[in-house]
Amino acid sequence: MIAELGAGKFIAAGGCLVCGVVVIAGLGGGAKYAFTAGDTAKLRAAVCAYTAPPDAVRRVPPARFGLSSRQIANAREIINVATELGLPKRAAEIALGTAIQESSLTNLRTGHGSYGLFQQQPSQGWGTKQQVTDPSHAARSFYTRLIEIPGWEHMPLTQVAALVQRPREDLRDAYAKHEPRAKALVALMWKSGSPRRAAVDPATSDDIRVSIRAAAGLGVPRDELVASITRDLVSQGSGEQLDPDETRKRADDIVTTTAGQLCKELKSQLDDPTHGDAPLMLPSGRGAIAVRAALRMIGVPYSWGGGGPGGPSFGTGRGAGTKGFDCSGLTEYAWSKAGVSIGSSTGPQWHSGKHVDRLQLQPGDLVFFAYNPRDPSTIHHVGLYIGEGKMVHAPRTGSHVQIAPMSRSDYAGAVRPS
């Protein structure tokens, strides 16, 4: 894709926004330009600019709702997360009504144990202080608990909000007064404020992500990127006659969707010093394929018993209402993309390949953690090593797939699947 954009002209003209350019294979076997990230903040700004055409986001006059521009932006983020999770408008209305009551849509970073838009308490499993003051994480955590309530879609906003936030207190009247404003905000911003979601063929998803990162790093205009992906879709049509307008619309949707995902991932890297840049250029081999597959799932909710070779799925027990991954579901999914079956739980995965010393770890190795590190029968968690002392994993209920240091006292060992 990127080769068709004339990327060489951008490099030759000194137009590279994020330098360190390399050449990798393209979809059709041709050359394509990528980069090693040198300025994550600059890269994120360029990627986020691809999420919609300049005139696509409908402006909401703050005075109309008695809210500031920042409060409107927080409301929009809550709505966007609902659409990313495939939830109905009702979920966004409940979340907005709750956030208006809890924080007046202000991302509160100080308090007495409660923080962020929803005044979530780290001590109650909502996440760290840094996470609950990230509007995207806070909204995702709220929705995760919301959908675990049986029949939530048919409950009054006041009742279900109280159950999510204060299950032991009767605060229904407090939430009730905010429902009209929440509904009005969702009605106004649902279409224009929420990014369109486009289905992307899993076989080309990684290539599209790399292309968008490379295009952003090279300063390629959005229209040119969309035109390139449109041509690529046509070339994959196997001679099928495709409607030009519909094809371009799908390409536009793909850019909007994928850039939105990358924008959030890069924000997490900037906000959390333990994240750093996810490795873009990995050594060749099945381990690298597994790592790329797992990194594409960052932000997907944790679901007990969820996930497998087919991707995120509804789990069992406390994960029955959440579509996502548990720790072994994520690693099974990642290695299945590399063509290797490792089993669906930590037991079989511990025996799925060669055991390797901690000092010999390579990207893609399975890293295990146990209540008694000397006793494999007590293993309770598994992650995927990505390099530089970090792993990608699905930690626990209420969290999401994320990157974290693997320097833990309960480390039990590592396996290189074969």
Automatic annotation (TrEMBL):
<feature type="domain" description="NlpC/P60">
    <location>
        <begin position="284"/>
        <end position="418"/>
    </location>
</feature>
<dbReference type="InterPro" id="IPR038765">
    <property type="entry name" value="Papain-like_cys_pep_sf"/>
</dbReference>
<comment type="similarity">
    <text>Belongs to the peptidase C40 family.</text>
</comment>
<dbReference type="InterPro" id="IPR051794">
    <property type="entry name" value="PG_Endopeptidase_C40"/>
</dbReference>
<keyword id="KW-0788">Thiol protease</keyword>
<dbReference type="InterPro" id="IPR000064">
    <property type="entry name" value="NLP_P60_dom"/>
</dbReference>
<keyword id="KW-0645">Protease</keyword>
<dbReference type="Pfam" id="PF00877">
    <property type="entry name" value="NLPC_P60"/>
</dbReference>
<keyword id="KW-0378">Hydrolase</keyword>
<protein>
    <recommendedName>
        <fullName>NlpC/P60 domain-containing protein</fullName>
    </recommendedName>
</protein>
